[in-house]
Amino acid sequence: MAIERTFSIIKPDATRRNLTGAVNAVIEKAGLRIVAQKRIAMTRAEAEAFYGVHRERPFFGDLVAFMTSGPVVVQVLEGENAVAAYREVMGATNPANAAEGTLRKLFAESIEANSVHGSDSAENAKIEIAQFFSGNEIVG
Ligand code: RTP
Ligand code: MG
């Protein structure tokens, strides 16, 4: 099993409800280490670039509005198979389909306001981490 890194966002619905610590407790209990973290106001340009793969989807405009509607916490998580491990901790995109104990089952409000993001591949994790962190901000 390889130690790898993934990129995480605690989304505005969760920061609004003061759930940053509660999300982090679940992440840490799952054995993932938070090796970088900062609270930011994502700009429209950042959100459009970050979710660029969804540009043609009907929910793109709403998604960008949501991601810029309040503070987010961007993070780098490290651990064994961190990409897949964190996707499991997050649960399904739609909280109605998310398994018991997952972040989205515990905290998400809707398919859009679903509390957390996690990279879907190791390649995308590298790209997403580089979008928000410089190397010296990540301390493993
Ligand atoms: P994420 O990228 O945020 O980790 O979520 P994901 O892989 O589970 O889901 P994805 O298909 O990549 O969708 C990205 C985000 O767009 C919002 N969404 N809204 N209204 C809708 O039907 C809809 N579908 C997706 C969610 O915030 C989702 O996490
Ligand atoms: Mg995704």
From TrEMBL:
Residues 3-140 form the Nucleoside diphosphate kinase-like domain. Its cofactor is Mg(2+). ATP binds at residues 11, 59, 87, 93, 104, 114. It is an enzyme of class 2 (transferase). One of its GO terms (biological process) is UTP biosynthetic process. The active site is at 117 (pros-phosphohistidine intermediate). GO terms for cellular component: cytoplasm. Gene3D superfamilies: Nucleoside diphosphate kinase-like domain. Its main location: cytoplasm. It catalyses: a ribonucleoside 5'-diphosphate + ATP = a ribonucleoside 5'-triphosphate + ADP; a 2'-deoxyribonucleoside 5'-diphosphate + ATP = a 2'-deoxyribonucleoside 5'-triphosphate + ADP. It comes from the Bacteria. One of its GO terms (molecular function) is metal ion binding. Coiled coil: none annotated. Keywords: ATP-binding, Cytoplasm, Kinase, Magnesium, Metal-binding, Nucleotide metabolism, Nucleotide-binding, Phosphoprotein, Transferase. PROSITE patterns: NDPK_LIKE. InterPro entries: NDK-like_dom, NDK-like_dom_sf, Nucleoside_diP_kinase. It is found in: Cytoplasm. Homotetramer. Belongs to the NDK family. Major role in the synthesis of nucleoside triphosphates other than ATP. The ATP gamma phosphate is transferred to the NDP beta phosphate via a ping-pong mechanism, using a phosphorylated active-site intermediate. This is Nucleoside diphosphate kinase. It comes from Aquabacter spiritensis. The gene is ndk.
